[in-house]
Design goal:
The chain is an alpha+beta fold and 397 residues long. The protein is built from 11 helices and 9 strands. Belongs to the acyl-CoA dehydrogenase family.
Length: 397
């Protein structure tokens, strides 16, 4: 008997991939094959060890998947649509959220910060190498004592000294920072109290990045605690078009939707594992997929996936048409990550005791969901952004 699960993506119940053009679909299939062939075999071992497989950098360099959203940089055709880049993030997270996060930090946060915040000379200087992944980027915003309140609470400072800037402070949770070639560091100018962006190169004196140990989520992402002690950065390395936190918010508005797509991918990965396991696992002389309570969990999971995918499809259309506001990405991030939490819990439940063993993979999705739920704006902060938009009243303290 033929079932819906015979398709390449068993979770695409409404054929959302059909919204892509034939050329975009080829890129998505290429992403799927890359993740299956080049990434999946490395995941379990490196996730358990809490180490990023550095050999993936070279594999990404050869994949042709990097730099697609940036016109004029990288060896690719037309600039990728937001729908395609979103589905690529989904496809990566469907296999592993750590690798998707590594890619998103580099290809999204770091590159887009330079694209949006840099002048043309800076774009031409850094983006070609990053689009080939000859160099790797990171994005340092969050601090040890300031996360949700970073706009007002940023403690890292920048002081102008002739043709250079002197940076002092600390950053936390910076993905890729332990091995990145370029780290976009945000600091408050002591002169005008405005937040500015600086590109700090690997090996700059006074800059240290120490890997955060003992994480239980996104274990392959090498998040770092960064210390900046009289780090001198030339004026030419200050992002010339990023002169206030409003510019930072503009970057986050664009990249936050990518996190929602990651959450969708995690849902899909967990659901597909649970569906396959339910059809194979025998109890009481029959597959557990034939039990009503198991089918209820699977159908609720598919409902969360389908509704979230529909929301993100329309969000991408708003982005591609230029009609896109903070509250659009905020609602998607808050809603889809909450649905993700439900799906990974239901998937783990279907596995029973095996669901806590890394060998079955679903435990990794269950754990990784917690980081995605929190970063790029917590559910509470994104809820307040949407709440202000729909009521006209600010509930921020």
């Amino acid at each position: 008997m033929t079932t819906h699960t015979d398709s390449q993506n068993a979770a695409d119940f409404y054929d959302f991939e059909g919204a892509l053009s034939p050329e975009e679909r080829k890129v998505l299939v290429k992403t799927r094959e890359f993740m299956r062939d080049q990434v999946a075999p490395l995941v379990a071992e490196h996730w358990a060890q809490g180490v990023f497989p550095k050999e993936l950098i070279g594999r990404f360099r050869e994949s042709g998947l990097v730099g697609l959203p940036y016109e004029g940089y990288g060896d690719h055709g037309p600039v990728a649509s937001h729908l395609l880049t979103g589905m690529m993030a989904m496809e990566m997270s469907r296999v592993d959220a750590s690798v998707a996060t590594f890619f998103g930090v580099h290809n999204g946060l770091a590159m887009y910060a330079i694209q949006a915040g840099g002048d043309q000379a800076q774009r031409d200087r850094w983006l070609p190498g990053m689009a080939r992944m000859d160099t790797v980027g990171a994005f340092a915003l969050t601090e040890p004592l300031d996360g949700s309140d970073i706009a007002a609470g940023m403690r890292t400072t920048a002081r102008r000294d002739g043709d250079t800037w002197v940076l002092n402070g600390a950053k936390r949770w910076t993905g890729n920072a332990t091995f990145a070639d370029h780290v976009v560091v945000w600091a408050r100018d002591v002169e005008d109290d405005q937040v500015k962006g600086f590109v700090v190169g690997k090996g700059t004196p006074g800059f240290t990045a120490e890997k955060i140990a003992n994480k239980t989520s996104l274990r392959m992402v090498e998040n770092a605690d960064i210390k900046l002690e009289d780090v001198r950065v030339p004026e030419s390395d200050r992002l010339q078009n990023a002169s206030s936190f409003r510019d930072v918010a503009e970057i986050l508005r664009a990249t936050r939707s990518g996190v929602a797509w990651q959450a969708l991918g995690v849902m899909i990965g967990a659901y597909e594992l649970a569906l396959r396991y339910a059809k194979e696992r025998q109890q009481f002389g029959r597959p557990v997929a034939g039990f009503q309570l198991v089918q209820d969990l699977l159908v609720k999971s598919l409902g969360n996936i389908t509704s979230s995918w529909g929301m993100l499809l329309q969000l991408a259309r708003l982005q591609d048409s230029g009609v896109f506001r903070d509250e659009h990405s905020a609602l998607a991030k808050a809603h889809v990550t909450a649905r993700m939490r439900e799906v990974v819990a239901w998937a783990r439940e279907i596995f029973g005791g095996n669901g806590i063993v890394l060998d079955y993979d679903v435990a990794r999705f269950f754990a990784d969901a917690e980081a995605i739920y929190s970063f790029e704006g917590t559910r509470e902060m994104n809820t307040l952004i949407v709440g202000k938009a729909i009521t006209g009243e600010s509930a921020f303290v």
